[in-house]
Each structure stands twice: as C-alpha cells, then as structure tokens.
Design brief:
This protein has 104 residues and is mainly beta. It has one domain (14-100). Helices cover 8% and strands 30% of the residues. It has one helix at residues 43-50; strands spanning 14-22, 25-34, 85-90, 95-100. The chain has a four-stranded antiparallel sheet with strand order 2-1-3-4, with no helix packed on it. The chain is globular.
C-alpha cells in the first residue's frame, strides 16, 4: 500500500490533487478535499457498520479504509484506461501515492 501509517484520530480535512497520466502526459487532473468533515455519514457510524461483519473482526488484523473524496474523473466525463497511472498527492500530509491500472 504505502510506507506511511497514521495512528490516532483520522484527519478532519485533507486536501490534494489527483492526476491520471496516460502515455506520459497528464490526461486528467483535479483537486480534492477529504477527511472526516467531508463524510456524508458520521465516522463512528461508518466504522460500526463496517466492523459488524464477522469477516473483518479478527484480532491483530489491520484494515485500510479509504473514505473517498469530493472529486471524480468520472463526473468530469473522463474514462480510465488500461495502464493509466493514477497519482494522488495528499499535499496537506506530504504523502504521494501512485498506482497503475491493470484490469487482468
């Protein structure tokens, strides 16, 4: 996933930029805001629902929960393609993630 692990209270607000790179050029770009202030449902309620499933309730297991953001390439009319590279820069936290689309 990533070499970062943030423990403690989830951030109230995170901002950054998402870039979709296709053939070495930026094909789509958008800024985003996420964090607990951006949730439609309360964090406590979301976690209670998520961990009500027995398959997720095992001592010692760590789960990554991506809560989403207010930006989507889909809503801009952009369609992802095989081998697109997604770059997510969480500018408020100094974290950058990349992932290449592989639909095998």
């Amino acid at each position: 996933m990533a070499p970062w692990l943030f423990l403690g209270t989830p951030p109230r607000q995170v901002t950054g930029e998402v870039t979709v790179v296709r053939d070495s050029s930026a094909a789509w770009r958008g800024t985003f805001t996420t964090g607990t202030e951006a949730l439609h449902y309360g964090l406590r309620d979301m976690m209670a629902e998520l961990f009500s499933y027995e398959g997720l309730s095992h001592p010692g297991r760590v789960h990554y929960v991506f809560i989403g953001a207010d930006r989507s390439s889909f809503h801009s009319g952009f369609t992802m393609a095989e081998q697109d590279r997604i770059e997510i820069d969480f500018t408020t936290h100094g974290v950058r993630l990349t992932h290449t689309v592989d639909w095998r």
